[in-house]
Design a protein that fits this description.
By secondary structure, the protein is mainly alpha-helical. It has one domain. The protein is built from seven helices and no strands. The mean pLDDT is 88.
Length: 171
């Protein structure tokens, strides 16, 4: 199922000189996946890869791996409830008070649609951005290690293949 992702990783590792840049690209893709800016993920990946000189393919793959049509609802619900927990239970802030008035109609519609009483977009924005940043920073060491090990494995495979090709050519 994830063959396309495995191929993209191998292609990115082969084309990129820096595993650090790949890891940062992947982690920024993780942030984009949790980002509350619905329908802007592709544009964010394009802008971030251009602004920071990062790998677009890796950023887009990470974003789509986490936030796709099958996982979109759970990711956004997790972001909302994380924002609610963070604002209400940790800082004791009633987030609906901080909502801009132009969002009242949208909040009322989403509240009735999802059955969440007093739905607040502020909670969703805080939760999505904060959760995305936390998961992106927490995943960086693991992603960096993964890309380093993948690069080493590819180099070892290439050197073994080169050695076999030389042995066959000398016979």
């Amino acid at each position: 199922m994830f063959d396309w992702f495995k191929k993209a990783v191998h292609k990115a590792v082969l084309s990129e000189q820096s595993t650090t840049r790949l890891a940062v690209s992947f982690c920024l893709g993780v942030y984009i996946a949790f980002s509350p800016f619905f329908l802007m993920h592709t544009w964010m990946a394009i802008a971030f890869s251009w602004l920071f000189g990062l790998n677009f393919a890796m950023m887009f793959a990470a974003s789509f791996l986490i936030n796709n049509p099958w996982t979109m609802v759970p990711v956004y619900l997790l972001s909302y409830f994380f924002g609610h927990y963070f604002l209400f239970y940790i800082f004791n802030i009633e987030s609906c008070v901080w909502n801009p008035t132009f969002l009242n109609g949208l909040n009322a519609y989403l509240s009735s649609t999802f059955g969440i009483p007093e739905f607040c977009m502020t909670t969703f924005f805080v939760g999505g951005n904060l959760l995305g940043a936390i998961v992106a920073f927490a995943s960086y060491p693991f992603v960096k290690l993964f890309f380093e090990k993948t690069a080493i494995a590819i180099q070892e495979f290439k050197s073994k293949k080169k050695g076999l090709d030389e042995d066959i050519g000398s016979e």
